[in-house]
Specification:
Residues 192-346 form the ELMO domain. This protein is mostly helical and 417 residues long. It is built from 17 helices and five strands. The strands form two sheets. Strands 1-2-3 form a three-stranded antiparallel β-sheet, with no helix packed on it. Strands 4-5 form a two-stranded antiparallel sheet.
Length: 417
Amino acid sequence: MRIQAMEGDVAVAVYTEGSNGFQQECQQTEDLTNGHSKHTSMLNGLPPGNGIKENGSINGNSYLKSVPISALKQNGLLQSLTVGGDQTKAEEVDSELERAQQEWDALESIQPVLVEDLTPSALISFNEALQHFQTTDLGDLLKNIQPTIRRTGLAAITHFLFGPPRLHKELVEERDLVFAIAQCSLDNSQPVHMRVLQTIYRKLTCTRADCPRYGPHWENVGFQGTDPATDLRGTGFLGLMHTLYLVMDPETLPLARDIYKLSQHPVQNFPFSVMSINMTRIALHALREEVLSKECNRRQQVVGVLNDFYVATFLHLYQLWKTQKKTISDSGYVLKEVELHAKKNPKQVLRHLETFLQERRTGIGHRTSPDTLSQSNPSPGDRESRVSSQGGKEGKEMNFTGVCELPPEMEGEARLI
């Protein structure tokens, strides 16, 4: 039995254990304000009139499921349950505070890393990238190359008698390496491949930091989507190697940026990287058709001649595109003309590049060769457009996919790929 005194009332409570194991309370309260006394039988702090049956249930259910918190507090049950847990809770709070303090101390020692401070990957030169392929086993790729056109019958006889000279035997291995690189796809696991990509992007955009492997930023340098690898069909990694040569050679870098600037023109814009890949495709066709064999034999190298031919072809396209105010809707026919001219006059195209670079070295500036422009056979409208360097075509923005289709029967179809 326990006597409990409550503030404001004089109360006597007698606790007895009921048949259900819980204390049964009989409480007498005397109201001090009126002097009358009340005698109320309580079951765990609740009067019998609250629906509590004698068997310790409420409306047929165990009363523990519906006993209010105030009643549990009144009869001291909550106090008895929490007395033993106060010490454990205090220890847990101390532990949490200590852990939080340790984390805060650790945060103070962490220094923020700015994007500008991230160390970019080292730029890679063309020769370093080429050495990577020279020391890599490309045996499987070499089995699938087609370095020359297979001719039979009268075509073979005519080519033998009147065609260009054959490539010297000592240059065959170097030529086959070029075609093997053209069979190689972009590999994310190869650091050299990733450095080539980053070098091209940073040299064209004049940025210091590396860019993500995937993303819309690649469209800024003329790829058609978020992954440059999807545009390398037909030329493989050689397409990137030629662009790398263009931006890493000190003599051709200004030309690369001139072409890139034109590709960003509001009217005459075109996808720079995709156009560059098309120049690689033209160069590969010229090498396969043995158009460059004579020059390769003279200089006793293949890679160097192919690089120069690629740049010379790109220069021809750039000057034609700029002076004749071409737009993306003209790209199909422009590429066709450029390919035919380059294959037919490889020596002239290479000589024009040499003259162009020489003029730049001496500070004369780059001028458009009359011979080169005469090959394009411009229309009267084109000649008129050359009079004013400021007058551009007014028209809506054109999508890259809107290029002209060329006749399918043309071998080595010239088109944006």
